[in-house]
Amino acid sequence: MELGHPGLVQKLVARIERGGPISFAAFMEAALYDPDFGYYMTAGPRIGREGDYYTSLDVHPIFAALVGRQVAQAADEIVSSGEFMIVEMGAGKGLLAEQLLNTYRRDRPEILARLRYLLGERSPAMLETQRQRLRELMGAGVRIDWASRLDAVPADSITGVFLSNELVDAFPVHRVVKRPSGLREIYVGWNPEPSPGAPVALRGTHCSVDAMGHSTGHGEGKVGGRFVEIEGPPFSPALEAYFARLGISLEVGQQAEVNLQALDWMRQVGVRVRRGLVVTIDYGHAAADLFAPTRRTGTLLGYYRHTVSDSPYVRVGQQDLTAHVDFTSLALAGQDVGLEVTGFTNQLHFLTGLGIESAFTGLAPESPQSAAMRELLRPDGMGTTYKILIQHKGMPAPQLDGLRTRPYFLDPLMRLPSPPRGEGQGEGHNAQNTHPNPLPWPVASEEQRAAPERENISAVP
Predict the structure, then answer these.
(1) Average pLDDT in the 75-83 region?
(2) How many C-beta neighbours within 10 Å does residue 367 have?
(3) Helix axes 95-107, 62-78, angle to 10 degrees
(4) How many CA atoms lie within 13 A of 81 on its CB side?
(5) CB-count burial class (<10 Å; 0-12, 13-18, 19+) for 205
(6) CB-CB contact of 162 with 278 (8 Å)
(7) pLDDT digits (tens, 9 = 90+) for 357-368
(8) How much is the pLDDT for 438?
(9) Is 153 buried (19+), middle (13-18) or exposed (0-12) by CB count in 10 A?
């Protein structure tokens, strides 16, 4: 099995040899976003049949049409006249923008006439794909712009809707593990020693590092030329503060991912919204489910040509890396900057509330179109794996059709577990603690499933 893109591997090895082990977040940042060799920064198919994974947008265009319907429903309440703005960050191939804008072109020209659509995209390869896809719409007079960074968008400048679809799961994460002595961070090191017959990537190799994350040498030298995992003190108090704010303590031996970048991102988004909504679509869980004791090894996975890998240390720069989203922490980060939660549900109920059932009228149940739409709603797949968090700012909570259907699973988003009674004796996610800022709405929680569920669909129309 390949170690990864040679140029990227050389960069990472040189960095580790120069400065010592790096955080997994730094490793993942390089694997996905290195400007020369990162997975998302280079040309080539990434999403869809020819890529490594599918999104809901690839399954059926009804998804974009119904997201557009939800945005349109909120538009007049956000601003009844004048410019209405949609900002989409991490737009991938540009499918959501294309399909949503074409829906407005056909059905809601009055919204299109006052709409400005801004795409936030850091990948030159993706940006070029988006420009090509949206060229015809731009030629027809639709106002479409790009920004390479979120900080290029001024504070309090968005009156409208900030959209993201499968963005947050691709932010680099720190990896931690609970030990009897406390929380430890999992760093990435490099061992150049040959090991005949050993696999290219070996997970679970432990060494010691000092408080700065530099190796003390203990435990190294016998696993071959490969990336290795090295436990050390957390790089920042922010990792322990993350769990403290949630009131969650991992069990001894339990691993988890911490997405500090997602919190910073949500706060930056909230600062830029003057009046409107933030709609975050991704796969993930409320914190009580995400960090339940049953998830002993976290949710990190790699995707390559529609196959799943549990090692991030193979095909580095050539496979997608992803971890499930903690929607509770996103909601709390939003509250820090004035974003209030409008609602939280799963894709099945979001699309049902927006009227997807009417799209089945006149279609044979066995038709490819019907099968694709059912895939979006499947209770043991996309329908409950994908969640939608909607927040509002500068306005009263709007009544939204996507939030009107009772969720498939019933739990409050802020339901948090009780602290463990002792090491390894936690009450887990069955506890019912009260958060100082409870959010009293029903949500789409889900059954305890230890493995993440990015969709690998064998056939779409």
Answers:
(1) 94
(2) 13
(3) 70
(4) 0
(5) middle
(6) yes
(7) 999 988 898 898
(8) 28
(9) buried
Would the pLDDT of 174 be above 90? yes
* 182-191/22-23 β-pairing: antiparallel
Lowest model confidence (mean pLDDT) among 15-19, 196-200, 261-265, 389-393: 196-200
Task: Say what the pLDDT of residue 408 is.
Answer: 40
Q: Three-state secondary structure along 106-150?
A: HHCHHHHCCEEEEEECCCHHHHHHHHHHHHHHHHCCCEEEEECCH
Closest CA to 327 of 240, 444, 247: 444
Return the pLDDT at 5. 87
Q: Which two tokens stand for residue 314?
A: 């193979």
Q: Structural domain boundaries of the chain?
A: 6-24+174-241, 56-172+248-443
Of 43, 32, 445, the residue nearest 261 (C-alpha):
32
Contact 183, 171 (CB under 8 A): no
Residue 183: CB atoms within 10 A of its CB come to: 18
DSSP 8-class letter at 403:
G
CA distance 32 to 41: 7
Can you tell me whether residue 182 is helix, strand or coil? strand
In a 3-state reduction of DSSP, which class is residue 22? strand
Phi, then psi, of 10 in degrees rounded to 5:
-60, -40
Report pLDDT digits (tens) over 272-292: 999 999 999 999 999 999 999
For the chain, percent of residues with pLDDT exceeding 90: 64
207-222 in b/e burial notation, b at 16+ Cβ within 10 A?
A: bebeeebebeeebbee
Helix (H) or strand (E) run with residue 284 in it: strand 273-285
pLDDT tens-digit readout, 31-71: 999 999 998 887 664 554 555 446 788 888 899 999 999 99
Q: Domain 56-172+248-443 falls in which CATH fold?
A: Rossmann fold (3.40.50)
Q: Give the C-alpha separation, 345 to 387, whole Å.
A: 6
